[in-house]
Amino acid sequence: MLSRSRCFSRTIGRSLSAISQGNNALSRRTVSGLSACCWVAYKNSRPECETRGSVFQIRFFKTSSAYRNEVVTVNTPAFAESVTEGDVRWEKAVGDTVAEDEVVCEIETDKTSVQVPSPAAGVIEALLVPDGGRVEGGTPLFKLRKGAGAAKAAEAPQPPPPKAEAPAEAAPPPPPPPPAAAPIPTSMPPVPPVPGQAFDAKPVSAVKPTAAPPAPAAPAGTAAKGSRSESRVKMNRMRQRIAQRLKEAQNTCAMLTTFNEIDMSNIQEMRKLHKDAFLKKHAIKLGFMSAFVKASAHALMEQPAVNAVIDDTTKEIVYREYVDISVAVATPKGLVVPVIRGVEMMNFADIEKTINELGEKDMDGGTFTISNGGVFGSMFGTPIINPPQSAILGMHGIFERPVAIGGKVEIRPMMYVALTYDHRLIDGREAVTFLRKIKAVVEDPRVLLLDM
């Protein structure tokens, strides 16, 4: 019986030793008896089990500080299907403290910009890509030490507590009693002696004014009035892509522009009458863009050549039986053209909702583009085709002008519209008919109901 107990104690001791070494833990074992027991404790717990004088105790180290100082590598997020690379523009530097979800850098692609936030609070350990460097999806961007900023703030020396106010000083002693009255003087006080040498005197003409201090220098980045200085800024990727595509359109397409004008009286009256009910039902405002988008879809189905495209590889004309309209949107970094798909099956409410969510839409494809320069006050202009499309509609500002209505001159809100088209595919007859169809629908939306 005694030998069995010793064997059991020896086996337990070896097991506990193996557990202690495998987990890198503190192990303390005291053997002074025939039986044993064991206990595993985590963090700060101190369990003990004692039987006949035998005690085993295992405690593991804390892992919170190791997790807090963990260094992670943040990679480039996945791009859209048609985007393969972009340029990095850093918002933070090495050693900067960042909060969770704070933007560390921005990746500029051909079509949009992608912000890269910090996955956790910490400190930037290293930037793995230079500013302006080109990256692809999954490329390592920077290293972040999690929680390092919070740890530094906790370890920073705290300001000393304010000293206790000194006790109030003792009250000053009472003033001495006034002296006895002095006798009234009967003689004049003595006159002070005149100095033997007079001060050096200089004529006024010999005195030279001191130079005024120099004016403070102008802050960096601001040019003085009349300055002929220059500054250079790197062209971002989006602007480079816009320039490339527009130049390709000029070199490839035989562009021609036709114009017309639209009386906006009816559409303005319809918007005025129904905007409140429209907003209440659909939770979105009724604008003019939905009317032009729907009118364009109606005209594109009537004139399929404007919705077609030339395949230069096979020398074929591709006619599309669907309408995907790109709406050009101006941003501080350049022009982007998100796409509204399947416009031919949408109503005004669907179009307005989609336009409101254009920032979340993709920018690939599109069979026709609408550019609205009127939001900036443009009165007249010729838009450039967005390749590989074959035409683009340009909207402009609404201005009151005198027009002839029924033999009389009236003041009406008028808008000039322009259609730029590829003359290799679209003739003047199709272009003018297309633009007149848009004019008819916008001036009288009932044309859509009658399918005219």
3D architecture notes:
It holds the Pfam family 2-oxoacid_dh. Its main location: mitochondrion. Its cofactor is (R)-lipoate. With 452 residues, the chain is of the alpha+beta class. Helix content is 25%, strand content 26%. It has nine helices and 21 strands. Strands 13, 16, 17, 18, 19, 20 and 21 form a seven-stranded mixed β-sheet that branches. β20 (391-405) and β21 form a beta hairpin. α6 (289-302) packs across α7 (348-356) and α6 (289-302) crosses α8 (428-443). The chain starts with a helix and ends with a helix. Mean pLDDT is 75; it is low at 22-56, 164-170 and 196-206.
Count of alpha and pi helical runs = 9
Low-pLDDT stretches: 22-56, 164-170, 196-206
Proportion of strand residues: 25-35%
Estimated structural class: alpha+beta
Please describe the biggest sheet, giving its number of strands, its sense, and whether it closes into a barrel: 7 strands, mixed
Order of helix and strand elements from N to C terminus:
HEEEEHEEEEEEEEHHEHHEEEEEHEEEHH
Q: Give the helix proportion (percent range).
A: 10-25%
Shape category: elongated
Pfam families: 2-oxoacid_dh, Biotin_lipoyl
Keywords: Acyltransferase, Lipoyl, Mitochondrion, Nucleus, Transferase, Transit peptide, Tricarboxylic acid cycle
Protein name: Dihydrolipoyllysine-residue succinyltransferase component of 2-oxoglutarate dehydrogenase complex, mitochondrial
Cofactor: (R)-lipoate
Give the SSE layout:
Layout: H1 2-22, E1 26-30, E2 40-41, E3 50-51, E4 54-59, H2 64-68, E5 71-75, E6 85-90, E7 97-98, E8 103-108, E9 113-117, E10 122-127, E11 134-136, E12 140-146, H3 148-155, H4 237-252, E13 255-263, H5 265-282, H6 289-302, E14 309-311, E15 316-318, E16 325-331, E17 334-336, E18 339-340, H7 348-356, E19 368-372, E20 391-405, E21 408-422, H8 428-443, H9 446-450
Parallel strand pairs: 2-4, 16-19, 19-20
Antiparallel strand pairs: 1-4, 3-4, 5-12, 6-8, 6-11, 7-10, 8-9, 10-12, 13-21, 14-15, 16-17, 16-18, 20-21
